[in-house]
Amino acid sequence: MRVTRGTLLLGIAAAVLAALSFVALRPQPVVVEAGTVRFGPLQVTEEDQAETRSHDRYVVAAPVAGRLLRVLLRDGDTVAKGQAVATLAPVPLSTRERDEATARADAAAASERGARAQLEHALADLAQAHREDARLRALVAQGLASTQALDQAQTAVVTLGMEVKAARNRAASAAAELRGARSALAAVSDVRSAADAFLTIHSPAGGRVLRVLEPSERVIPSGTPIMVVGDLAHLEVVMEMLSSQAVRVSPGMPALLLGWGGDHPLRARVRLVEPYAFTKISALGVEEKRTNVILDFVDPPGSLGDGYRVIARIVIWNSPRVLQVPMSAIFRCGSDWCVFAVARGRARIRHVRLGHRNDEAAEVLAGLTDGEQVVRHPPNELADGSRISVQP
Predict the structure, then answer these.
(1) Is pTM beyond 0.70 here?
(2) CA nearest 158: which of 227, 38, 252, 243?
(3) Rounded CA gap, 114 and 174, in Å?
(4) Which listed residue, of 209, 338, 357, 364, carries a Cα 20 to 30 Å from 221's Cα?
């Protein structure tokens, strides 16, 4: 059969129309954003709000009831140990009140003896830690012990050294309370009226006046706080953590203090995770179990004072080189973790096994290799084998 020129042109037009229809109707590639699996440093941290406080706060209180004269000290004033900070005109004591004052003096004496015993115990523990450190140094030099055990022994020496300092401060505080209780008892035992004698209240330690609680003259009951004294040269950081997070923290872990007002973060180190958890209601009304984590400054605290707000970031785990994938690429597929890998213009689902992770990246243990590209923030319409177009 002879094909005419018109028939040939008609056939070509039909073929072109069919090709254009196929191109127009076929699914368009999904535009995605890609990330790269790569080796790099990875840190796992726990971050929360915290505040500074003086390592040893002393609340100066009225040992007996009486008329407090006007306090001349102001917030921020410097005081020396034993300096007179307030004057009180005691009221006459009844037999019951005198017995109570005697009991307080006896209790203060018992507390002072207990503080001295704790100090002796801390000194003994520190001496044992020094002996253990010296023994492990010798064993490591001979190749008979691991450096990890030596690091733990050195951390124990540092931690117990701080415990000794704290025990000394507690012993000094208990001794000051004992002197105050005995002087109060001696001052009021022979008083017949409030005008017969004055009781001078002394500062239990040197430092600065953090806050004057009773600046004006008035009659106050026994035990009324008058002022708070602390040493701003020895600050610490208190971080309230959820108990489920605090179990991952241990003494000696490094930390960074952010948001304190300076132009660079301050280094700190975990000294203590308190063993007692308390109940706290969150801003959303949820009941939470929290515990205090205490950090010591490594860098000088600068102009920080008592009760200042900071953001504490504790480094739980750290590695200088680990294969990692962006967290934005990871999603759940059943009980496993999955990603969409970019392979020749298509998205291929890949099961992965993950290790440590933070808010930005996760450690890859299996399923991906260095240099592979994965889809970040995969859209809902993306499926295994879908054509994709990676944004430049």
Answers:
(1) no
(2) 252
(3) 9
(4) 209
